[in-house]
Amino acid sequence: MESEKTKWQRLVDYVKAPEIPPSEKKTWKERLMFLKDPKFLKVLLLGQFLSLCITGTNVTTTLLASNSMPTTQTFLNYLIVAVVYNSIAIYKRGFKGWLLQFWRRGLYYFVLGFIDVEGNYFVVKAYEYTSLLSAMLLDAWTTPVVMILSFFFLRARYRWLQYLGVFVALCGLGMLVASDVITGKNYAAADALKGDLFCILGATLYGLSNVGEEFMIRKHPHYEVVGMLSFFATFINFVQLMILERNEFADFSKSSFSIGMMLIYTACMFCIYSLGPIMFRMAGAVVFNLSLLTSDFYGLIFGLGLFGYSVTFLYPIAYVVVIVGIAAYHFFPVPEPGIGGFDKEREEQERRELFGIKSEDVERQDVEHIEEMSDEALTPELSTEGKN
For a pLDDT cut of 70, what percent of the chain falls above it? Predict the structure, then answer.
């Protein structure tokens, strides 16, 4: 009986969020002060910038709908990101350091790269088969997937208001979809079941990729995580391109309009892949995905001029609801995952582990350095005494 009670208590302790000591409990006014917190404002602004970038990718993908090639669209982005961030890694760590990170953690980044490539592929491909509104709703599945995976793998513990914040933000998305139903901003589904399954699969893969990337970004430098993920993704993407879209790519390269849209798409994706991991480190993958829910509102602004969309009163209300949901999530401090964060101390520890430097070696080097400094300081004094 006692053992059963102990097991139950352990389960409760595992699930529940950490309690706040009475001395640290705050009034509502004190809690709302987070709205003036520079960190919250940075997270909010960064999230909305990334949401605008997502809007850019959605608009260009819509304009390229007649030439739908999901693998080709992402190849150039992976290639540029890989070149930029692996160059930074080699500059920071040397070629030996780059080879060491490749050898020791390459398998993890290969799996992450594969998941990311296929997530992009299935979500873009889903728009060919299912209706626009179904794709929008099912794509939001990424947010609860990230929250569930963060709970188990990152050991993040949430409070009731943070669950409520996610729910409110998703309600905001529902209002956007309702507005689209009213205005008829939809198209018929060619194969609804196939498209919906593709969208759910892609959204789930996005969630896995986000949480996996957050796990790595909390343990290793930004340039390593982004560089290595995109390095493997480039090769995976290229092989898939040659198998699935070789003929379409040849026709695509002849269109100057398509090339222009591709460059805009690549610029937006470069920002997402560069700044997304920073968002993971600052606030987590859950906040990242919550922030992206406003992208449909920004899409409306472009759609008014480009696609002849009409607007209803629900759109601005829905935008405010999503922002309120994000703010509610931040009412309590954003949960710090049990795996910790990446600070200067963790960075130095990670560097030592990568190059196989033991702590004893570092201490010996520090002692030798101090002794050298002491000898240098004593030398002038001895010279002066000798002259006297």
Answer: 69
In a domain, 20, yes or no: no
Per-residue pLDDT, averaged over 151-167, amounts to 85
> For 298-318, what is each residue's pLDDT tens digit?
877 777 766 666 667 777 788
- The pLDDT tens digits for 102-128 are 999 999 999 999 999 999 888 878 777
- The alpha carbon torsion through 285, 290, 291, 297 (nearest 10 deg) reads 150
Q: Which domain holds residue 248?
A: 37-333
Same domain, 363 and 234: no
| pTM, rounded to two decimals | 0.78
Considering the domain architecture, whether residues 67 and 104 belong to the same structural domain is answered as yes
Apex 210 CA angle, 16 and 199, nearest 5: 105
| Rounded Cα distance, 133 and 118, in Å | 22
What's residue 383's pLDDT?
Answer: 54
DSSP 191: S
Residue 23 has pLDDT above 50, yes or no: no
- Give yes or no for a contact between 169 and 326, defined as CB atoms under 8 angstroms apart: yes
* Domain match, 106 and 251 both: yes
Q: Which residues contact 199 (CB under 8 A, 6 or more apart)?
A: 122, 123, 126, 130, 134, 135, 138, 139, 141
Residues in the chain: 388
| Residue-wise burial string across 84-96, b where 16 or more C-beta atoms lie within 10 A, e elsewhere | bbbebbbeebeee
Taking Cα atoms as reference points, which of 363, 56, 310 lies closest to residue 186? 310
Considering the domain architecture, whether residues 144 and 213 belong to the same structural domain is answered as yes
